[in-house]
Amino acid sequence: MNRLADLEVVAFDLDNTLYDEGLYYEAAFERIAPWLAEHSGRDTARVRARLRAILRDKGKHYHYLFSDILTELGLDPKGDLPAVLDLFREVTRRLEPFPGVPALLGDLRRRYRLGLITAGQRRFQERKIELLGIAPFFEEIVFSSTLPESKPSPMPFRHLLERMGGVAPERAVYIGDNPLFDFRGSRAIGMRTVRVHNPELDGLATAPADDAEIHVECVGDVRALLL
């Protein structure tokens, strides 16, 4: 595996790149399932199982998980949704990064400037970062949903490099897992790109312009590319 040279900035995606987002959903379901069961008169275990089934069938980027379960349970998919989202935001269980990620970020920070670009609502993403305990590793964190254009637009990638003092795109690499969001915009402005294998996306048809130039099996493998 050839090393990436002449880089100043190493930027990461968050969900399913640095940790398994399923851990956050599991922690959230522990809070949400009892609430849904209480308000619908259903069994908590069955409600939790149904939440897991919808997530498994639709995927983590499906935006109507909680609206669907509220409708299925005969609750108000609009009026009750804010309460469910508050519970989703209030997860307290500490999250664990993928193995070796803290050590990797620490080693990278000694040689490069580190950035993070994550989509999703800012309040949820901030909570995940807090529970992972990884914020101190990053010089800049961009919540792309707060910008006029989110990922996969080039805007969040340009925004990160501008906030880091106008670093040239060819001096930066973006490491993510999802070709639907992570590489079209970063490649369009000239950043290098690395795709971390995500088994949930194995069957996804990917156009060359939407894929990364380098593929690795796990995020720890970027050590050989960068250190």
Annotation keywords:
227 residues, alpha/beta, Rossmann fold, 2 domains, 6-stranded parallel β-sheet, 9 helices, 12% strand, elongated
What would your notes on this structure say?
The mean pLDDT is 96. 40% of the residues lie in helices and 12% in strands. The protein is an alpha/beta fold and 227 residues long. The chain contains 9 helices and 6 strands; from the N terminus they run E-H-H-H-H-H-E-H-E-H-E-H-E-E-H. Helix 1 (21-40) crosses helix 4 and helix 2 (44-58) crosses helix 3. The relative contact order is 0.18.
Write the layout of secondary structure elements.
Elements: E1 9-12, H1 21-40, H2 44-58, H3 65-72, H4 81-89, H5 101-109, E2 113-118, H6 122-132, E3 140-143, H7 155-163, E4 172-176, H8 184-188, E5 192-196, E6 214-216, H9 222-226
Brief digest:
The chain is α/β, with parallel strands linked by helices and 227 residues long. It has helices at residues 21-40, 44-58, 65-72, 81-89, 101-109, 122-132, 155-163, 184-188, 222-226, and strands spanning 9-12, 113-118, 140-143, 172-176, 192-196, 214-216. A 6-stranded parallel β-sheet has the order 3-2-1-4-5-6, sandwiched between helices.
